[in-house]
Amino acid sequence: YRIGQLYMIARHSFEQSSNGEGVEVISNEKVTDEVNGEGQFTEKRIHLSSARSYQNYMDIAYDEIKPHHYKEAEDPKYFKSEKTGRGPLVEGWRDSQQPIMCCYKAVSVRFEVWGLQTKVEEYAQSAIREVLLLGHRQAFTWMDDWFNMTIDDVREYERDMQTKTNDKVGVGRTGILIRKAC
Q1: Where are the coiled-coil regions (predicted)?
Q2: Which end of the chain has fewer CB atoms at under 10 Å, N or C?
Q3: What does the pLDDT look like over 29-66, one tens digit per residue?
Q4: Number of domains observed in the structure of the chain
């Protein structure tokens, strides 16, 4: 699933980005921590022109997504992998399927403007939930695209898609950066 998640993030970021809106990759590099071991540090900037801390449990097969994002080919209730035989995901799949992947995301949203902070942060959390739900549905239903990739293959795919995605977003041409004065 590690390969699938990396593949999904790169492809999803590209597909969901357009001029002025989307995910800009600032940094994506391997790190080693004495306590936690090896990992990947990724810093992204999400450009929102059209999204507080809480726990949210998602079911990639049965939680509703917005109609404009729905594609039957990306619906885990109908998808069956030709390479692995996994799917479709039936009601109660989390209790009956093995193996199962559980993903935890820690997301921080700060918008420190009096009078707007709560609304903007709630919008951002809602938008992030939507992105995560759609993205993990896609990771599952795109598995035949990524299943036989190596980590080197997917890292090359990531680099290629990050460049294309940053170009598609139009990073550097327009944008607003608001920083709190010291």
Answers
A1: none
A2: C
A3: 888 888 878 888 888 877 765 544 457 788 999 999 99
A4: 1
